[in-house]
Amino acid sequence: MSKIPTIIGDNYTILPVAIPSTPAYPITSTHHIYLRQHTPKIPTENDSRSLFATNLPIDSTDVHIRSIFAALIGVGRVEGVRFDGEKEEITEQQQIETVSQSKKRKRGNNVQIDTSLPQGWDRQLRFKGRTAVVLLVDEKSVESVLKAARKTCKSGKESKYPVWGSGTEGKVPALGSARYAKRQELRFPDKLAVQRSVDAFMTNFNSKEEERERERKRLRNVPDDDGFVTVVRGGRTGPARSEAAEEKRREMAEKEEKRRKELEDAGFYRWQGREKRKKEVGELVKRFEEDRKRVEGMREKRGRFRPER
């Protein structure tokens, strides 16, 4: 049997992981995770101490990744794990939004309101081949992980492979039939939990409505760039700043006068073309009359022409 290479593709280091047997599949297998230095298109300050991992198992969790890295370089070296698409999923499922209350805004305090409904699953499964970015405590830890992965792969001994799920017992929800039994239980959430989610959503909605109303009231008293004050539904709560509005009107009048003068100088209007043509015709008639009078004067001075016989 040929040896597995330690590095393949775009500088990926191969990390073999032993998948233990289960009652449904009582055979031990080997799974390969690919690691490399994280190099995103938009660099960040943490790239030098981050690893990009791909081809993760579908049951991957933060606890599983930490357990594998602990088996390679020891515990306490992983600072955080962010799976591919995790930000979007958190935004869609949890929808935790920061709402600034009117009284607490002056103190600089923010209140987090969880508007998500109770979850239908106790654990999320991922698609095959998903990726993750593992943030380590320092750059030295990154080199240590890659070095340990190459050493593990080079040994070729399954007994030295880190075991997937080792040390995660009791830390993550169970799979198999227990997962679906829990699913059946979560399908019918407690009424109080649903009521809390609805109340949180309505509180968030009312806060946004109040903020929108305050913004509308503010716009009633502030003229826009053209000097106009926004007209909104409802009575006025205070006089508009007439001085600022009048100043804007004067500026607009000056701009319009300057623009009109430039257009007139350039002959933009139709009546200017007619006046120009009429003036040119008048000049031609005037020069014609002057030339005719000059010719008649010359004839009178010379007298009638008499040819010789």
Automatic annotation (TrEMBL):
Record field: compositional bias (Basic and acidic residues): 243-262
Top-level lineage group: Eukaryota
Domain Rrp7 RRM-like N-terminal: 12-182
Location of the Ribosomal RNA-processing protein 7 C-terminal domain: 187-308
Gene3D superfamilies (UniProt xref): 6.10.250.1770
UniProt GO cellular component terms: CURI complex; UTP-C complex
Xref: Pfam families: RRM_Rrp7, RRP7
One GO biological process term: ribosomal small subunit assembly
Chain residue ranges for the region called Disordered: 93-115, 234-262
Family, per entry: Belongs to the RRP7 family.
Protein name: Ribosomal RNA-processing protein 7 C-terminal domain-containing protein
Organism: Sclerotinia sclerotiorum (strain ATCC 18683 / 1980 / Ss-1) (White mold)
